[in-house]
């Protein structure tokens, strides 16, 4: 097959020549779209790599992300969703081939092929979890022990520490590796829809339930279901999850029969579930069920030794090399946003130094407080200046410069986030794209400012 459809997203140039490729087979294209690296976007917009002309498909609907260690399909918070075996999915790891429904009626196939020697499983896993520090070695040991069993595992750790990477390696190291790895983000789905998205629903179960759907549990049959942000699961849904874990069966919404499922559940949280129990937001018996195996992903502070290796790894994935002084400067930072923050800083530094192929010799040393804040746009900046000039502004002079600056940054962040979310059609992924801030970090920022995305969506005209 010719390579003329191969396109590379500039931000994700991988360095090592890969023999793996992906193909997207979609309606309206005489031959499949092929790519070896980067991100392939599918949607209605003519700017997508794969254009799909259908009224129920979003402008940019899904991304197929090609990583050194695997291929992932991500739904970009679309209105009509992306379905796999009847279940609405947010992210799905593609092993060999999947058939997806975009919107209401478009079927596409994503296939992973290899036209060279295939890499061994060991080297793939090594590429996934970078870090040789003592805490990482302990973590690897724990994962190697837990992976082959079907035990439910709870992964704890601060934001950005790599909980999802850990969940994925539990899957790839298990006997289920050739079956689906399904990600279900409890924080990303409206609480009223979680039950049907998890357990499926029968035809006509509720207004709008046109056909039947399998739900995430059944979509993960034979494989692993990763329940992300489990701390966000509403209390009233917890008994049904408990039952699914105990009896390995689920009852679709609107149905009266239980259906057997063979699924290994891995859950993650950046909260302490015991505290949630204490606060009356989480069932104690569910904590026991989820935490049969329990691993804690260390913060990057606790393994600063790993910073240079991680930074070099990310730089290489963007096609660049970092000079030793840059690595040293990165290692000296505190990294409250952990590995994700490090990755973002490396990406930005590489881009500012001219992108892939370069040796980066200096660090883009922005104000630390603002490192991951979105860049200022004119409107909120003016709003902020307006507020400073008003009587509000006078109060700033009662504070120290540091405190006033902090307050101003907080105000700016909040204003920016509110406008950003609205301007992005209340779509978190779109907001991430516009602002250049990782979607998950954005969600943290919204949380920090107590901005209720669901309420904003509900109010939208
Ligand atoms: N040990 C690691 N080796 C290589 N990459 C890593 C490692 N840990 C994390 N990453 C990368 O850092 C980023 C954040 O990781 P991940 O999404 O797994 O974090 P998380 O703990 O799930 O964060 P959150 O709580 O915000 O959801 C990802 O791009 C991931 O690939
Ligand atoms: Mg996560």
Q: What would the average pLDDT be, to the nearest integer? A: 82
CATH architecture of the largest domain: 3-Layer(aba) Sandwich
In whole angstroms, the N-to-C terminal distance is 48 Å
Helix fraction, binned, reads: 25-40%
Number of helices, counting only DSSP H or I runs of 4 residues or more: 17
Structural class: alpha/beta
Give the radius of gyration.
Answer: 23 Å
Q: Major sheet: order of its strands? A: 4-3-5-6-9-13-14-17-12-18
Written overview of the protein:
Strand 5 and strand 6 (70-75) form a beta hairpin. This protein starts with 19 loop residues before the first strand and ends with a helix. It is of the alpha/beta class and 461 residues long. It folds into 4 domains: 10-114, Tumour Suppressor Smad4, CATH 2.60.200; 121-296, P-loop containing nucleotide triphosphate hydrolases (Rossmann fold), CATH 3.40.50.300; 301-365, Helicase, Ruva Protein, domain 3; 378-459. It contains 17 helices and 20 strands. It binds adenosine-5'-triphosphate and magnesium ion (MG).
